[in-house]
Amino acid sequence: MENRLRRAYLEAMGIECWVPRRPDSNAPAGDDTSAVGPPQETPPAGMDADAGPPDWMDEVPPPTEEWTSVEMPEILPVAADTVATLDWLALEHRVSQCTACGLHAGRQNTVFGVGDRSAGVMVIGEAPGAEEDRQGEPFVGRAGQLLNAMLSAIGLQREQVYIANILKCRPPGNRDPRPEEALRCEPFLLRQVALVRPRVILAVGGVAAQNLLKSQETVGRMRGREFQFEGIPVVVSYHPAYLLRSPDQKAKAWQDLQRLVGILKA
Ligand code: SF4
Predict the structure, then answer these.
(1) What fold does the segment set 80-265 form as a domain?
(2) Does residue 27 register a pLDDT over 90?
(3) Model confidence at 49: pLDDT above 80
(4) Alpha carbon distance 29, 99 (integer Å)
(5) Average pLDDT over residues 78-100
């Protein structure tokens, strides 16, 4: 078998190959390039780096079209099938231990969710910010205070709704969640929705609405329309943090809250 083909084949099988080091042709004569630069991999004891793959590898048939076209199994976001059966205690514990995406490395706390676990209204935001990460609770700080005030305006206290985010860990620098992060975290939110079984969901902000409703549309285009998530009516509105920056949009958010009240009264 040709060396190049054999090496590709071995690498496809997860077997490392060592290629004999060649002097850097750009290095000055006599310069030992192996003495500088990043450390070089060395083969395990008993293997000769210059010998290449052992001869018995030649007896292994080359990959067939069928073999090479096998698709890699899809990486499950988290073990979605098992998450779907967890009770509150087990679900919260699973989230606290989760390392399914890279965000786990930078978190101080997971931000699971807070509020009445049998609430009629579930508020879903996008992801924890710095303060939420510190406190382990969603919607704290100024945006949280505005959310509380919005809820209060329709006769609801914060403790009477359930509040959660698309992501349970903070993205660095308050950047938007990446699609793969949202996908990996999704089973947790799905289970929270299934356990709460709210009468209406208030999705605040584009990230929440887009991930929940699998849409690319802006909040401006989605608000005022009828959507459902898992058979539950969804009201799309602006994120309180956005309303703090754009107070002229508060009137529209008020209209959205009125729609929510209408759904609750229906
Ligand atoms: S953001 Fe979600 S999926 Fe990622 S580590 Fe945190 S809990 Fe796990």
Answers:
(1) Uracil-DNA Glycosylase, subunit E (3.40.470)
(2) no
(3) no
(4) 50
(5) 91
Is 80 a residue whose pLDDT tops 80? Answer: no
Please give the angle made by the CA atoms of 255, 232 and 98, to the nearest 5 degrees: 105
Mean pLDDT is lowest, of 40-54, 162-176, 203-217, 218-232, for 40-54
Ligand 1, pocket residues at CB < 6 Å? 95, 98-101, 103-104, 110, 167-169, 181, 184-185
* Residue 71 vs residues 66, 88, 175, 177, 179: alpha-carbon distances, Å: 10, 36, 32, 27, 21
Ligand 1 atom 2: residue of nearest CA = 185
DSSP bridge pairs for 123: 163, 202
- The domain segmentation of the chain, as residue ranges, is 1-70, 80-265
**Distance separating alpha carbons of residues 221 and 252, to the nearest angstrom:** 12
